[in-house]
Structure formats: C-alpha cells, structure tokens
C-alpha cells in the first residue's frame, strides 16, 4: 500500500506550473536573453525592481552565487514589508515614488530594467516601466497577465502594457494554490518568478558561450577561491552599484 504524502497535491501543482511557465515563455525568454546579452556586451547595467514580496525576486538577481554581477537593485525601504507591512502597501500605491527611485538609481544607455510585479497594476511598478520606456531603456515585465486582468487598475494601465517584453509567471489571481479545488494557502509567485529568472540565466549563458562573450558571474563566497574570484567584479562594479559596498 502506497502511503499518501501530506500536501502531495501541492507538489504536483508546483511541478506542473513550472512546466507550463517554461513552455509558455520559451520565445520571450530568448528575446530577453538577447536584450541582456546586448547589455553585457555594451558594459551596461541590469536594473532589477519590485515592491512588497516581489522584492524577493530582486534579491534573487543581486549578488547571488551563480548570478550576474552587473545587476543593480532598485528599491526604496518603504516598499519592503519588513519595514512596515501596511506602509509598504501604501508606498506601492503612491504615484511619484517610481520617478524618485529611478532618479537615484539613474538610467543610462545600454541598461535594461526588470520590473517584478505579479499583479502589475499598482502605480509603483507601472510608473517604473513608463519612466524607463520614456528614457529609451528596454523594460522586461515579470508579471502575471491573469492576475493583472483580475486586479483593480490603480494606475490606469498595467506593467505588461508598458513593457518591451513580458515574462508571464502565470500566477492565478490571489496567488494561493492549495487546496486545489478552493485555494487559500501556499503562494506560487516566488517559486515561479525565481524559476523564470534562472531559465533566463541559462539561456543567456548558452547564447554568451555561442558568441564568445564572457559573462560577469559571481562565485559563492563559501567555496575555495570564491572571494578571490569575486574581488575583480567588486572593483569593477562598486562605483556604479553602491549596494555592493
């Protein structure tokens, strides 16, 4: 007799969801990998932005073993739930904060901006995309088209509608996935978004290898030689990415 593992339905949901995400985004991932490769070739910067729990995705992109060194996180402390849950929601819904944050971060030629927002309807992520696009900087939206369609349009438009390329994490409205018939628990957005980011890195690595481009990649500081390998990258990028200090 096979013993049923508690929550096994959830495991199936996540595995199936990730397969769906990979298949649905295949073409868009190739396009984004080309954008990022062009940024690396031109010695530009990848800016990564989000609010609320989407800041977990920003953390995944920054100073991460096996990740790109040319990534600058774009954020404001008010957007982090640990600095105040209610105030972080209010900050994401406040018009004008995106312009302030982008002025501080700076947008330069050859940069690309990633905006992580599963709902993609609040002023902060939408205005990030609008301002970047107006500056001629490509915008990659990592969002859920289904969640955006079901959410109130607090900015009058959506992140996806103002992006150069959309990566769809396919998260259902409300984010919860369990129980399957009436989900109230176990959000899937963080898992799906991190998976999308790493799918992108894999495509980028393969494209870079094909064209002879050396990617600036972090090594783990907890393996032999990691600190030495990272020291040159820190020297190169600290002046443009102050969060590396």
UniProtKB/TrEMBL annotation:
SUPFAM superfamilies: SIS domain (SSF53697). Pfam families: SIS_2 (PF13580). Residues 36-210 form the SIS domain. InterPro entries: SIS_dom, SIS_dom_sf, SIS_GmhA/DiaA_subfam. PANTHER family: PHOSPHOHEPTOSE ISOMERASE, SEDOHEPTULOSE 7-PHOSPHATE ISOMERASE / DNAA INITIATOR-ASSOCIATING FACTOR FOR REPLICATION INITIATION. NCBIfam families: PRK02947.1 (NF002805). This is SIS domain-containing protein. It comes from Saccharothrix mutabilis subsp. mutabilis.
